[in-house]
TrEMBL record:
Pfam families given in the database record: Arf (PF00025)
Superkingdom: Eukaryota
Protein name according to UniProt: ADP-ribosylation factor-like protein
Transmembrane spans: none
Ligand binding (Mg(2+)): T18, T35
InterPro entries: ARL2/3 (IPR044612), Small_GTPase_ARF/SAR (IPR006689)
Keywords tagged on the record: GTP-binding, Magnesium, Metal-binding, Nucleotide-binding
Positions with a binding annotation for GTP: G11, L12, D13, N14, A15, G16, K17, T18, G59, N118, K119, N120, D121
Xref: PROSITE patterns: ARF
A GO molecular function held by the record: metal ion binding
Amino acid sequence: MQVAFSAICVGLDNAGKTSLLRTLSNSQRMEIFPTPTMEIHYVICPKIGKYCLIYDMSGNGRHRSNWRILYQDIQAMIYVIDTSDSEYRFHLQRHLIEEVLNDDLIKKSAIPILFLFNKNDKKNRFNKDDLIKVLGLDSKKFKNKFIFKETSSFEISKLKEAIDNLTDALYSKKQ
């Protein structure tokens, strides 16, 4: 199996990271349990017909320090945000995003980051544009290429489109 690139998938616990990745990788497991520390998924990149290796990292507080271990081995990041989360969790999210984006390895590599605004099928949710502002993602102080997509684990076409957008950003960076 030829792997085009590797990415890390991060976000707070219960954001839906594992559900999204299992949908993309056609995993048949229906029961979802909290990711212990890490799962590995191979996801086809529709546009280039190759696989990407995605490290699905636990969003639990005590496991977040493990994210950094993989920063030097990745070419892209997927950051999943639960749009139906509480206001308190969005403040925690903003702090966590700033911590990730200010990490020396992330700043130096300037990897593309796909922000997936997940669970957009829920009624009580925040919209993408408001969350971009609340989370400080409208700032120009970061040199990473940001891609913003609204998703749900029920919308495979939007998920595939998001992976295509990430692939485009990654390959345009290499040229």
